[in-house]
Specification:
The protein has about 240 residues and is of the alpha/beta class. About 30% of the residues lie in helices and about 15% in strands. The chain has six helices and ten strands, in the order ββββαββαβββαβααα. It has a six-stranded mixed β-sheet with strand order 2-1-5-7-6-10. Strand 3 and strand 4 (about 25) form a beta hairpin. Helix 3 (about 145-165) crosses helix 4. The longest helix has 22 residues, at about 145-165. The N and C termini lie far apart (about 40 Å). About 40% of the residues are buried. Residues about 230-235 have low confidence and may be disordered.
C-alpha cells in the first residue's frame, strides 16, 4: 500500500533506492545515473542522516495507503503530509504534490483509513465517519460517538506516522501537514490533541511536536470541540 516515485523520471516505482542517502528511489540504474549527474551527487551526503521508511506506520494496510513524492533536486530535509477531503482519494493529490516542486521537501500523500460510505463502493475515503446508512450526514448530538471514535482512530494513525518519521530523522519541526476539507479537520485534531512535551518525553510512541500547516474548508467537529465525552446540547 506504499508507492514511491522515481526521482529522475517521476514515474511510479517501488524499485532501486539510493545507497548513499537511503531516501530517493529510481526505476533502474539508468535513471539513478542520470539523476546523479544532474546534481544528486552534491546533495546525497547531506540527506544521509535521514531516510524515508519502506512504509509508513499507520498507513500500510489495505484500508490506508501512503505515496511518497520526492523533491525536484533530491535533497530531503522536510516532510509535507497531504490529507485529501471527504469522499476523495490520494490520487489527485499525488498530482498536486508533483506540481508543488517544494525545495528540500518530500511530499507524503495519505489515503483516509475509512470508506466514505461503507455501504457503497467507489465513493472514496474519509478521515472519520460522516454518513448514516441511509446517506444522511451524521448529526452532532449528545451521546453520538461515531465521528469522535473514528477521528480518534485517525489521530492515532497520524501520530504513529509522525513518530515513525521522527525515527527516520525527521524531527517535529521538519514535519508539516496540509489538509483539505475533512483532511484539514484530521490534521487540526492531531495538532490540538498532542499531549504536553513532558508526557512525550516519557513515551517514545508519541510523535514530537510538529509544525502543522493546515488548509481546511471544513468545520471542526462540535462534539470534539465540546470535550472528549462528546456531551453537548441538542443542535449545538
Amino acid at each position: 500500500a506504499t508507492m514511491f516515485f522515481c526521482a529522475a523520471c517521476a514515474q511510479p516505482t517501488a524499485g532501486l533506492r539510493c545507497s548513499g542517502c537511503h531516501v530517493l528511489r529510481y526505476c533502474n540504474r539508468a535513471c539513478q545515473r542520470t539523476h546523479w549527474r544532474a546534481g544528486h551527487r552534491t546533495s546525497c551526503s547531506s540527506s544521509s542522516r535521514r531516510h524515508l521508511p519502506h512504509s509508513l506506520a499507520g498507513f500500510s494496510g489495505a484500508a490506508a495507503a501512503a505515496v511518497f513524492v520526492p523533491p525536484p533536486q533530491g535533497l530531503v530535509n522536510n516532510i509535507l503530509l497531504i490529507l485529501h477531503g471527504l469522499g476523495d482519494t490520494e490520487k489527485p493529490f499525488v498530482e498536486l504534490a508533483a506540481t508543488l516542486q517544494l525545495p528540500e521537501t518530500a511530499c507524503v500523500v495519505l489515503r483516509g483509513p475509512h470508506a466514505a460510505m461503507p455501504a457503497l463502493d467507489d465513493v472514496g475515503y474519509a478521515w472519520h465517519a460522516a454518513f448514516e446508512a441511509d446517506g444522511e450526514l451524521i448529526a452532532a448530538r449528545a451521546g453520538e460517538r461515531r465521528r469522535l471514535d473514528t477521528l480518534d482512530a485517525t489521530r492515532q494513525r497520524l501520530w504513529a506516522a509522525m513518530a515513525h518519521l521522527a525515527q527516520c530523522g525527521f524531527s517535529g519541526e521538519r514535519v508539516f501537514v496540509l489538509g483539505f476539507g475533512q483532511g484539514g479537520i484530521a490534521g487540526l485534531d492531531a495538532a490540538l490533541a498532542l499531549p504536553p512535551a513532558q508526557a512525550q518525553a516519557q513515551d517514545a510512541l508519541l510523535p514530537p511536536r510538529a509544525v502543522l500547516l493546515i488548509c481546511s474548508s471544513g468545520t471542526y467537529l462540535p462534539e470534539a470541540a465540546a470535550g472528549a465525552d462528546g456531551q453537548q446540547d441538542e443542535g449545538g
